């Protein structure tokens, strides 16, 4: 049983989703909710066990159908992917819980789609095969298309149409890149690719370079890197808030793929092709941070602001990926967990605030006061402090680590300047938004206004409480992030794990 | 054969990109389909082009690479699903937004004029 543990975070959501489409659940919403939250919890538990196991025993490799590595498909659970799988499963559980308050009634099949999305994201994190990465990308994308349309209106249709078409073009580019790489390298297993890249000669080097840079286009599109980020604010702010919160993990899939491909396949050891995307990534990341910060300043409503905060966090992460040292990767891993949880919390909070303010909804103007100011205001304060990166919460720890890790690199000066100015912009606009929404009131609150459902409060609190917990347990967490970063950069270790004796 | 094959892929890509840039849902869907055909052919060629060779080891001197065939099969299945989805979405977009522009708004002045002309003709 224990050797099959690696496959459970992929299998459990799939079984849950299929089960929820079948007769015992069928149209019965109550049964569906129970199964959804239960299976979400089960997936989370399985992921946590996997996380603990990889910390104890190191990377585990699971050959699907027992076909061994270069030819068969493998799932690799190294510390990084185990951590991200846990994060995804937890986020799925929380969003499932939140939607039980009524969001899942606004269209059919919310819960099955949610689990299909978790299946896709978990699979993309775990897979060790480039083509399989494509397949899991498609699984998560088609689930996200349907979730995006879930209970939507006109504005939503337009955003969905653009999102779908962009991603379909992206998928075509992905396949072309894989075709080129397979043609030159003769393999699609990522560890094997990393090994074969060193042996390339002549024109094949240029072909592999074209393939690798085409992959960069695809990952930049999924991760919303400038200039391919324009779909994100529109898409995220028109989707249902709970779906947007869930999508907080999806940009991270792109960033994670970049980490894998450009530190493993085209990393240190890749000979002529080593660090080939570094300069591209670096300048695009800086530009993304700038654009995201401008977007945050210009946002008229809370959800657009949070969507732009996601863009800033993607820029920060990609900049750290471009630096490519162990320290910067470790900082990126810590920051990735923090930013996913905080942006999901902010999306859900914006929804609760919008529901209680009546017509003004989540626009940043004076309006009627919320009916639960203490609860929502307190939660917003915590999340805002975290997202700005002020002490004492997890954003601050992440920010200090990020700045420390870039200090000695040749890129340091530029990054410090841009990142700190962007932080100031975020500080200004988030605090303005918070004070306007909670303090600038016209009219009186209505005591019979809609109050937050216990499931919603529970879900938001789970997310908001993660931020202080990430500070309290910063020691073990940062040790784990460092371990994950070391494994990520450990080229020979991974080859040994995946390919064993095959050379 | 290589020349024919590669120019075929190139032509399909060119048509696909042209149609996608038209930014109206029906041409875009057609363009995406063409692009996916081109991609499938390209993927197939990544295992090198061979004539009359089976993908069975041990029965012949040379053999065709079986992996691209498996990849293309997967890509075709996924491509079908995505095309079906985008067709339905395009129909819904037409119904919801009242026109077939990807942006949901008529931006082209020429078409706007012709639209108003048609309206006037209808009135007359």
TrEMBL record, chain A:
Signal peptide: none annotated. The keyword Transmembrane helix applies. It comes from the Bacteria. GO terms for biological process: ATP synthesis coupled electron transport. GO terms for cellular component: plasma membrane. Its main location: membrane. It is a multi-pass membrane protein. It is found in: Cell membrane; Membrane. Residues 129-421 form the NADH:quinone oxidoreductase/Mrp antiporter transmembrane domain. GO terms for molecular function: NADH dehydrogenase (ubiquinone) activity. Keywords: Cell membrane, Membrane, Transmembrane, Transmembrane helix. Pfam families: Proton_antipo_M. Belongs to the CPA3 antiporters (TC 2.A.63) subunit D family. This is Monovalent cation/H+ antiporter subunit D.
TrEMBL record, chain B:
It is a multi-pass membrane protein. GO terms for cellular component: plasma membrane. It is found in: Cell membrane. Pfam families: Oxidored_q2 (PF00420). The keyword Transmembrane applies. Keywords: Cell membrane, Membrane, Transmembrane, Transmembrane helix. Its main location: membrane. InterPro entries: CPA3_antiporter_subunitC, NUOK/Mnh_C1-like. It comes from the Bacteria. Belongs to the CPA3 antiporters (TC 2.A.63) subunit C family. This is Na+/H+ antiporter subunit C. It comes from Pseudoalteromonas rubra.
């Amino acid at each position: 049983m224990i050797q099959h543990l690696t496959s459970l975070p992929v299998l459990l959501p799939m079984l849950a989703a299929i089960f929820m489409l079948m007769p015992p659940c069928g149209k019965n919403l109550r049964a569906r909710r129970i199964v959804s939250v239960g299976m979400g919890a089960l997936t989370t538990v399985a992921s946590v066990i996997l996380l603990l196991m990889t910390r104890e025993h190191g990377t585990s490799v699971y050959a699907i159908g027992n076909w061994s590595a270069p030819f068969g498909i493998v799932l690799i659970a190294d510390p990084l992917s185990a951590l991200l799988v846990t994060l995804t499963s937890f986020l799925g559980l929380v969003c499932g819980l939140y939607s039980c308050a009524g969001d899942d009634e606004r269209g059919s099949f919310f819960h099955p789609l949610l689990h299909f999305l978790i299946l896709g994201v978990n699979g993309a994190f775990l897979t060790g095969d480039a083509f399989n990465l494509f397949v899991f990308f498609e699984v998560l994308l088609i689930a996200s298309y349907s979730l995006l349309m879930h209970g939507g209106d006109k504005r939503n249709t337009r955003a969905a149409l653009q999102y779908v078409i962009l991603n379909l073009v992206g998928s075509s580019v992905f396949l072309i890149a894989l075709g080129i790489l397979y043609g030159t390298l003769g393999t699609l297993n990522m560890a094997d690719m990393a090994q074969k890249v060193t042996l390339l000669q002549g024109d094949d080097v240029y072909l592999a370079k074209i393939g690798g840079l085409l992959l960069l286009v695809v990952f930049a599109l999924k991760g919303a890197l400038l200039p391919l980020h324009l779909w994100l604010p529109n898409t995220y702010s028109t989707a249902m808030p709970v779906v947007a919160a869930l999508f907080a993990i999806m940009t991270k899939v792109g960033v994670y793929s970049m980490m894998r491909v450009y530190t493993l396949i085209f990393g240190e050891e890749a000979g002529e092709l080593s660090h080939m995307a570094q300069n591209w990534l670096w300048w695009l990341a800086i530009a993304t941070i700038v654009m995201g910060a401008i977007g945050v300043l210009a946002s008229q409503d809370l959800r657009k602001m949070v969507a732009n905060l996601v863009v800033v966090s993607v820029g920060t992460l990609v900049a750290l990926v471009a630096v490519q040292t162990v320290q910067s990767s470790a900082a990126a891993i810590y920051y990735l967990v923090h930013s996913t949880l905080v942006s999901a919390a902010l999306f859900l909070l914006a929804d609760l605030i919008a529901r209680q303010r009546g017509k003004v909804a989540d626009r940043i103007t004076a309006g009627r006061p919320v009916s639960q100011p203490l609860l929502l205001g307190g939660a917003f304060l915590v999340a805002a402090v975290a997202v700005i990166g002020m002490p004492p919460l997890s954003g601050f720890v992440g920010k200090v680590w990020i700045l420390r890790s870039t200090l000695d690199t040749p890129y340091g000066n530029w990054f410090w300047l841009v990142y700190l100015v962007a932080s100031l912009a975020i500080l200004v606009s988030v605090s303005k938004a918070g004070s306007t929404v909670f303090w600038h009131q016209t009219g009186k609150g209505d005591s019979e206004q809609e109050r937050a459902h216990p499931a919603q409060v529970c879900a938001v609190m789970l997310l908001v409480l993660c931020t202080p917990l990430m500070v309290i347990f910063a020691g073990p967490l940062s040790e784990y992030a460092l371990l994950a970063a070391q494994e990520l950069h450990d080229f020979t270790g991974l080859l040994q794990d995946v390919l064993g004796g095959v050379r | 054969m290589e020349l024919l094959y590669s120019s075929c892929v190139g032509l399909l890509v060119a048509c696909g990109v042209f149609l996608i840039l038209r930014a109206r849902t029906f041409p875009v869907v057609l363009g995406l389909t063409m692009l996916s055909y081109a991609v499938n052919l390209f993927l197939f060629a990544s295992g090198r082009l061979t004539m009359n060779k089976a993908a069975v080891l041990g029965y012949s001197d040379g053999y065709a690479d079986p992996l691209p065939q498996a990849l293309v099969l997967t890509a075709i299945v996924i491509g079908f699903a995505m095309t079906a989805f985008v067709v339905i979405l395009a129909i819904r977009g037409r119904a919801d937004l009242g026109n077939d522009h990807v942006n949901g708004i008529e931006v082209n002045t020429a078409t706007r004029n012709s639209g108003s002309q048609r309206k006037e003709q209808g009135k007359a």
